[in-house]
Request: fold
Amino acid sequence: MGFMATFEKVAEKALVPIASKLNSQRHIVAIRDAFILSFPITLAGSLIVLLNFAVLAPDGFIAKILFLHKLFPNLADLQSVFSPVLNGSSNILSMFIVFLVARNIAISLKSDELLCGLTALSTFFIIYPSYTQVDGGNFLTTQWVGAQGLFVAIIVGLLVGELFSRLSKSEKLQINMPASVPPAVARSFKVLFPIIIITIVFAIGNAVINKFYADGLHELIYAALQTPLKHLGTNVVSLVILAIVSNLLWVFGIHGPNTIAAIREAMFAEANLENLNYVAAHGSAWGAPYPVTWAINDAFANYGGSGMTLGLLIAIFLVSRRKEYREIGKLSLAPGLFNINEPIIFGLPVVLNPILIIPFILVPAVNIIIGYAAIATGLIPPIAYSVPWTTPGPLIAFLGTGGNWLALIIGFVCLAVSTLIYLPFVLASNKSVENTSDSKLDSEKTA
Amino acid sequence: MKKILLVCAAGMSTSLLVNKMNDAAKEKGVEIDILALPISQCESVASEVDVVLLGPQVRYQKPQVDTIIDGRVPVEIIDMRDYGMMNGKAVLEKALSLIE
Reply:
């Protein structure tokens, strides 16, 4: 058996079951899908913040190009119109997440998903720090409804999801209404006892924790879980390792980014949101609190999709003499510009290709380090604005830094680096096809 | 009309395949409705589709889809090569044969 055949067998036997377990494990899936579902809302918020500064601030890059501030001197005043947008998106992300995690658990356990999600949201606020009274008005801190409350949201979502789904299946706890009662009314009575039980359990738990830990449950979980994990994620070594793992999974034909999404979100969500809040407050990505986030991967090491295959495509067009490589290259170019590369991964294929595996893993690692170096040395600001991952190549670096031209140039440098690294491997694949056709000729001759 | 559901991570690459499959269906003169959705959203249409095909990159999510579909209709994984070449015709044939 050849090396690749052995390799493939090991992969299918070992990796696919692990990925399968990881991705069918309902708690991981619930967290991952909660972030995926809330993503459009945080992304919309981020884009509005970006546009707000790019167009309306006097030093925004679009305003500069179009001389907008000269035409409309009071334009900057309009910025305040859009600044509340974040209050409805990333600043309340924990509320979305707690609802969605519990809802997702309820879906996989086949219980009432909507009421389960609502119960989780209710519980989230039962254990929330209580109101402070100022001048006769009640005030609730915003500290834990946004990024810093994410872990509490996830944990509450998981616990309530499980408890609700299990309790609501117990026949003893159900109040069954006669058939003449409208279904909507019957539905709410059916889950009444489970909701009461969950509410009591969390209220007591919260009181007990507050007794022993004066700063409260949110502070405890934030300090004990969320902060360590955040520090584990926001450094260049973790970035490179995560990228290698993600791309290595693709080599076996498994969707890498999707598989590591839950852990990635847990590590970077708070840092991303803090960065976004920083740029919303300061109007610039310079000095953003978390210079190293997963955004570096998207901005410098993911052009064309995982493995930065835009460089591979360029290398193919430059030097490949294999007809099928050029054909698939053409087919893959349009989706590749928007970082979708399944055609090239499965068509070329990159999957289990002994030559292309090496640059596919190497290129993103190298470019993450280049991007990191540019940010760490203060050459360019951090990638603080979130930009859709389907944005073409170097534009992610440009927009993510709030319109820094040097970041755009470094993006093109990274693209050139990726092409250069892929080149010798594409040349090698030319040779391997020549060899096989030669050996075919030889065998025909001998035959 | 029969409905085919294609599932991948974000519904992006499968939507490319949908176009190719629609072309193939037109050529063949078959009337068919083809959807592409990420796995997080396929719950909503699970009861209406006649066959579910997974992109090979999310083949490990088959257990999750199996739970959602609950054995009602066939759930299969698209061949890697057909997927990469965006071979709409081959995938359509496979889907039609599964429906029958």
Q: What stands out?
A: Residues 405-446 of chain A form the longest helix (42 residues). Chain A touches chain B at residues 16, 19-20, 22-24, 29, 32-33, 36-37, 107-108, 250, 253-255, 257-259, 328, 331, 335, 338, 340, 342-349, 351, 390 (CB under 8 Å). Residues 235-433 of chain A form one domain. Chain A has 21 helices and two strands.
